[in-house]
Design a protein that fits this description.
about 700 residues, 6-stranded antiparallel β-sheet, disordered C terminus, Beta-lactam/transpept-like, cell division, cell shape, cell wall biogenesis/degradation
């Protein structure tokens, strides 16, 4: 039997396919939209999005490495590093102010602060901190006028700072000040620049910080160092300080950070690029758009700076300083001399230019201070020591001939009357040097005057002196050496030309004086003086020397245009000064075992000055001495300068006493190389004659 289908069932059955079709259609549409979107991203914007997703920027944070050491010529450490730990903080561009405040509070609570940290806090710092503790939005609403609220954010903040009262500043507690000390140091630094916020951490502080570094982002402990001087400090070594503001741009262009320590004077400055270490680098990956830091930084270790081996012998240096002090004290009581308060000496190898010792001493208020700088920067009238250059100029220009006799008697010209320290009668060029005749030099300078303008005669004489290093830079490896002062003669006045020939017009430094006598000792070759002998890689231990990178060889600056026989003539004259029967230094350097047959020249420059305390007009003498030894094959030259001595009671022998003791000290140390030489004390020779003036 056939039954008729239920109409309701038939209707429901027909709706199922329709709904499935609609569902399939919707799904298909959604998939189409998704595929279309993916296509747009991959095909149209794919390259742009890929570059955006892969874009990273390297930002490098640097930490200073220890500087190189300075060693003397026997590899004794004279400037080194004392290690200590510093607390540093490195900000990133996404560092928040609240994070800095939290860390500052943590550090202040556990480490405390030093007086030095407190002293750096300014009134503005306190106002900024007071604002940081408040609800800034509320403060702006309550304290700023309608006009001020329309200002830029920066100007609004300035207006807000100006409204902080003294009472509010005083409300800051001791704890606030401690927190501020750290916050101030942390805010001072630049992004990705490790900023020292506390130095000389003790062991307990290092331990506390180390255990909590994970909770202190940006905080680190850095191995740091400061300069130490095992043999005492010297102005020659120089100083290391934070970059001076006047040189910030220069050092920043050289890759330094603002917080870096640099050499600001002396050899530390001269050899900054050598002594500077290679910094430890922390490489951060950041998103250039958001500034967010990606992952942990990669650390590249640094390296200590290169070591410098000096030409100086510290044992000789010590003895030179001691000699200067003792001779100054011995000379001062003679005649109540209260102005003789300084002395200088430089000892140099005339053939290589190596400075073996450079010392200066000043006496003030009963105490001595080191003033080696004075040998490079203080210029004086040097007196008769320059007569060697005058005689050579006369011989070179044909103004005199070897052995020429000139009568030493009062020199009168154009109403001018000049003379030597005593009348000597007929003398040769050799005798003029031996006895230090002024009149012989006056005649040489007088014969130099020609038809040209008088200023050209001065220029001609000075050019000749320049060839020996007088009045020009010596070329020493030291910043900003002085060149002395050229006297300015009155219009039409020739009298000072004669003074130039006896060393009483232009001024020179002790370094120029030693280069001058070295040029004569070295047969006319002027050698560049230098304080550094070698540059080496850092040593791996205290018992070895680092790899040699550079050795400074002798550098000849010029050869004077003088015949060898003339140079030898002046050399003979210098020998007569110290060994001739009437030499001005006769009896001081005769012992060959002590002094090794030296030659040289004494000098006295008379000056009339006003006493700085009494106001009285007094006569003062600059006492000088140059020399070299041995005469036959010189290996050491020296220059002694004692400015403003009193010409009374024999104290002007101080230049000879210093020269005696310095030479003996040098030869003793050479004989006992590597050993502790005995201290040289006392006068090494008995007074042989007064020779009180030249």
């Amino acid at each position: 039997m056939v039954t008729k289908a239920d109409p309701e069932k038939k209707r429901k059955k027909s709706q199922v396919p329709f709904r499935l079709n609609v569902l399939f259609l919707v799904v298909f549409f959604l998939f189409s939209v998704l595929i279309l979107r993916l296509g747009v991203l991959q095909i149209v914007n794919g390259e742009e999005k890929r570059l955006e997703s892969e874009a990273v920027e390297e930002v490098i944070a640097r930490k200073e490495a220890p500087r190189g050491k300075l060693l003397d010529s026997n590899f004794r450490e004279v400037v080194g590093n004392e290690p200590f730990f510093s607390l540093t903080y490195t900000k990133t561009v996404d560092t928040k102010a609240k994070d800095t405040m939290r860390i500052a509070e943590w550090l202040a609570d556990r480490l405390g602060v030093t007086e030095d940290q407190i002293k750096k806090i300014t009134e503005r710092d306190k106002k900024d901190y007071f604002i940081a503790k408040q609800d800034v939005t509320k403060m702006i609403e309550e304290r700023l006028s309608k006009k001020e609220k329309k200002l830029s954010d920066k100007d609004q903040y300035v207006a807000l700072v100006n409204k902080i009262t003294d009472e509010e500043i005083k409300s800051l507690t001791d704890k606030d000040i401690k927190i501020l000390a750290y916050k101030r140091a942390m805010d001072t630094g630049y992004a990705y620049s490790a900023q020292r916020i506390k130095t000389n951490l003790n062991n307990e502080e290092v331990s506390v910080i180390s255990e909590n570094l994970g909770d202190l982002p940006g905080v680190d402990i850095m191995a740091d160092s400061k300069r130490i001087y095992p043999y005492g400090s010297s102005t020659i070594f120089g100083q290391v300080k934070q970059i001076p503001k006047s040189k910030t741009d220069y050092f920043m262009s050289m890759g330094y950070d603002r917080s870096d320590q640099v050499g600001v004077s002396g050899l530390e400055d001269q050899y900054e690029n050598v002594l500077r270490g290679t910094k430890e680098k922390s490489v951060y990956l950041t998103n250039p758009k958001t500034g967010a830091t990606i992952g942990e930084p990669k650390t590249i270790p640094g390296q200590r700076g290169k070591d410098i081996v000096l030409t100086l012998d510290m044992e000789l240096q010590f003895q030179l300083e001691k000699i200067l002090e003792e001779e100054i004290l011995r000379a001062k009581p003679l005649g109540g001399n209260d102005l003789l308060d300084s002395a200088y000496i430089v000892m140099m190898n005339p053939k290589t230019g190596e400075i073996k010792g450079i010392a200066g001493k000043k006496y003030e208020d009963g105490e001595f201070s080191n003033d080696a700088y004075g040998a490079l920067f203080d210029a004086y009238e040097m007196g008769s020591t320059v007569k060697g250059a005058t005689v050579l100029t006369g011989l070179q220009q044909g103004l005199i001939h070897m052995g020429e006799v000139i009568v030493d008697k009062p020199f009168t010209k154009n109403k001018m009357n000049k003379s030597s320290w005593r009348t000597m009668g007929p003398i040769t060029d050799l005798q003029a040097l031996m006895m230090s005749s002024n009149v012989y030099m006056f005649n040489i300078m007088d014969r130099m005057i020609g038809p040209e303008h008088w200023t050209q005669t001065y220029a001609k004489a000075r050019y000749s002196f320049n060839q020996y290093g007088l009045g020009v830079k010596t070329g020493i490896d030291f910043p900003n050496e002085a060149i002395g002062y050229e006297g300015k003669p009155p219009e039409g006045e020739s009298g000072t030309l004669y003074d130039l020939g006896i060393g009483q017009f232009d001024t020179y430094t002790t370094m120029q004086l030693v280069q001058y006598v070295s040029t004569i000792a070295n047969d006319g070759y002027r050698v560049k003086p230098h304080l550094v002998r070698e540059i080496r890689e850092p040593a791996t231990d205290d018992k070895s020397h680092g790899k040699l990178l550079k050795r400074f060889e002798p550098e000849i600056l010029n050869k004077i245009d003088v015949e060898q026989k003339y140079i030898e003539r002046v050399q003979d004259g210098f020998w007569q000064v110290m060994h001739g029967s009437k030499g001005t230094a006769k009896g001081y350097f005769d012992d060959p075992a002590k002094y090794h047959n030296p030659a040289g020249k004494t000098g006295t420059a008379q000056r009339i000055i006003r006493h700085p305390r009494t106001g009285n007009i007094v006569e003062k003498h600059n006492l000088t001495l140059v020399g070299y030894a041995p005469f036959e094959n010189p290996e050491i030259a020296f220059a002694v300068v004692v400015p403003e001595g009193t010409p009374q009671n024999g104290n002007q022998k101080i230049n000879k006493y210093i020269g005696q003791r310095a030479l003996e000290a040098y030869w003793n140390l050479k004989e006992k190389y590597g050993e502790n030489a005995a201290t040289v004390t006392g006068n090494l020779e008995k007074d042989s004659e007064d020779d009180s003036a030249e």
